[in-house]
Amino acid sequence: MSVDARLDPTPRSALPPAPRRPWWLLALATGTLALLVYMLWAYVPPDIATSRADMHGDQVRYGLLVAHIGFGAIATVTGLLQLWPRLRAHRPRLHRWTGRAYFFLGVFPAAVLAIPVTLWAEQGVSNQAALLVTTGIWLATGIAGLRAARERRFADHRAWMIRNFAVTLSLSTSRLWGGPLALIVFSLEDSRVYEGDLTAMIHDMASAGAWLSLTANLLVAEACIRRRTRRRAP
C-alpha cells in the first residue's frame, strides 16, 4: 500500500467504483472484424473472377458492388470506434471526426450504392425488398442521428446512432443466420414447400437471413437504448 493510500481518510466503501471494462465491446469488435475479413477476402484485390456474386462479366456492376462493400467496411470499422467509451470521454474531437467519417465516408455512400446493387441482386423479390428496407432505415437513422448531434441533443444522437450501427452490422450478421436457415430449408428440400427447387431454397435463405438480421439487430439496439435510459433515470 502506498503512503498516499495510508494517509487517505476516505473509506474504501465510499470510493467510486472502478469503471467497467467493455468486454462486450471487445467481443463484438472481434466477431465483427472476423466477419468483415471473410466478406472482404473475395474482393481484395478486386477481381471479378473471385466475386461471390455472379456478375455475368459486367465490370460496371462489379465496380459498384466493390465500392459498396468498401464503404460498408469503413462504416463498420469507424462505427466500432464510435462505440468505444474512452474515445468519446477522453478524445471528443477524434470522436466527432470519426463520426463524420462513419456517416459521410461509410454509411451514406454505401447506402446510396446499395440501391443499384440491390436492384441487380438475383435472390428474389423478397430479398430485394429486405435490402431496400434495410437501406432506407440505414439512411433514415443516420440522418436522424446527424441532425440530433447538430441540434446538440446528444442523448437522442446516441440512441439514433446505436440504431444506425445495428443496421450497419445487419449486413454482416445476416451471414450468421445462414447455417440455421440452411438446416431448416434443406430439411424441406423434398417436401411440397420446395419439391427439390434449389433456386427457390437459395432465394428463401437469402431473404429470410436479411429480414431476420435486420429485425434481430434492431431489437437488440432498442433493448440497449432502454437499458441505458433506465440506468440514467433519476
The number of strands is 0
Oligomeric grouping of the chains: single chain
Order of helices and strands: HHHHHHHHH
How many domain units?
Answer: 2
Which descriptor suits the 3D outline? Answer: globular
Low-confidence stretches at least 5 residues in length (pLDDT < 50)? Answer: 1-19
Assign a percent range to the helix content.
over 70%
**What is the number of helical segments per DSSP (H or I, 4+ residues)?**
9
The profile of the biggest β sheet is:
none
Explain the overall architecture.
With 234 residues, the protein is mainly α. It has 2 domains: 25-42 and 56-120, no CATH class; 125-233, no CATH class. 74% of the residues lie in helices and 0% in strands. It has helices spanning 3-7, 23-41, 59-83, 85-90, 92-119, 125-150, 154-173, 178-187, 198-232. Helix 6 runs antiparallel to helix 7, helix 7 (154-173) packs antiparallel against helix 9 (198-232) and helix 8 crosses helix 9. It is globular and about 55 Å long. Mean pLDDT is 88; it is low at 1-19.
Which features would summarize this protein structure in a list?
234 residues; mainly alpha; 2 domains; 9 helices; 74% helix; disordered N terminus
